[in-house]
User: Fold this.
Amino acid sequence: MTPRHTRGRAVIDLRSDTVTRPDAEMRAAMAAAEVADDILDGDPTTRALEERGAEMLAVEAALWVPSGSMGNAIALAVHLRPGDRFVAPRLSHVVEYELGAVSWLTGALPRELPWSVRPGCIEAAVISRTVSSDRPYDALRDRLLCLENTHNAAGGTVTSPQEHREVVTAAREAGMLVHLDGARLWNAAVAAKTSLPKLTSGVDSVQVCLSKGLGAPMGSLVCGSADFVRQARRVRKMLGGAVRQSGVVAAAGLVALGRVDRLEEDHRKASLLAAGVRDLGWEVPEPETNIVMAKVPDADGLVRNLDRIGVGVTVLAGKVRMVTHCDLSEGDVRDALVRIKRLATFGEEA
Ligand SMILES: *Cc1c(COP(=O)(O)O)cnc(C)c1O
Assistant:
């Protein structure tokens, strides 16, 4: 675990945008939230958050859930049953980082598709060529496509509105439903300079996180048609995800929804960070959003050394991952680069 201070210096925590803590404005909104028992009567602040989220994403309805993983699991539990298969780009969160919860809950099996266009993106032609819901009665049925925008393990890569449209159309033509894991969909919209509805169009359900770059302490929205949300609400209760005075955290979510535009700053900081470590010879593609992925010879060893000098990073998909966020200023990013350069020059005594 990364300590908050090391040798008297504050730790610069680039492990994830989930480390962001609610600021004074958010805490004030939480303290002042009007609340009620959401299971018995409905919680007014949670309702307001769900309505605002649905409006921003241009979907009929939204449901607050405690985490993104639960949001994905609920959506896929509504859509899938035993004998089904769901397809997703390689290294998708729902396949690799949710412990197989979808298969546990539904009996459906995953199938990963290659990143044939560029990192994190699958190609419409690959779907048309390889996927079909019209298979022999004794074969697994490809029932659903699960997209991820931005794609986390690929390095926060963006699927553009046009690519989104093409892939969704191909999935529909193959007889599949579409779920979008939009944990960082906000970042995708800001980076692609497009509107959120262009990135949700045609999907049957979408999950978005309030707890990452937007800075809420917890919570996601899982969204779709009114009928989808009716079913999702029942599954949420089955999983123990229906909570009582959820308005306390929903209030933070409402503040978070007003902070989409400032993600641009995180993207700029990621670009600055990437340029700095590239100067040291690290192999780093230009970040599209707030995630920097570096290919280095010994990722685990480097993470340990960085930890000693107060720079928190993680290893993901064999690479060093660094994530910029609102709790770090541009000055903090420059400070991290100074520390990393000292480590490169003087070794572990930096
Ligand atoms: C973070 C994340 C989730 C879910 O996150 P929780 O930690 O369960 O809230 C889902 N998908 C992607 C791509 C993510 O990055």
